[in-house]
Specification:
Helices cover 35% and strands 33% of the residues. By secondary structure, it is of the alpha+beta class. It has one domain (15-70): Ubiquitin-like (UB roll). A three-stranded antiparallel sheet has the order 1-2-3, with helices on one face. It starts with 14 loop residues before the first strand and ends with a helix. The relative contact order is 0.19. The chain binds zinc ion (ZN).
């Protein structure tokens, strides 16, 4: 999200884009997952629009892919 948008919750405030970091644990290893959303400066609602949701889904996919690659590499190391 690059443009300030009107808040869909209260209709008065404006949304400020934020990026938070969530830690996800997969197979006992933790990964930092950036989480995109926006906060309203009036009602302080946290909203994720379609762009944010897509970006979050893409980043989650990327991490899952990385985990899969690591697992494949481990299998290759030990024949
Ligand atoms: Zn609001």
């Amino acid at each position: 999200m690059t443009v300030l948008q009107a808040c869909p919750v209260c209709g008065q405030g404006h949304l400020t884009p934020q990026v938070d970091t969530n830690t996800v644990v997969i197979n006992g290893k933790s990964y930092d997952l950036p989480c995109h959303f926006a906060i309203c400066n009036t009602c302080e609602s946290e909203v994720a629009d379609t762009d944010d949701a897509c970006e979050n889904a893409r980043l989650m996919k990327e991490i899952r892919q990385r985990v899969e690659n690591e697992m494949t590499n481990k299998l290759k190391e030990k024949p």
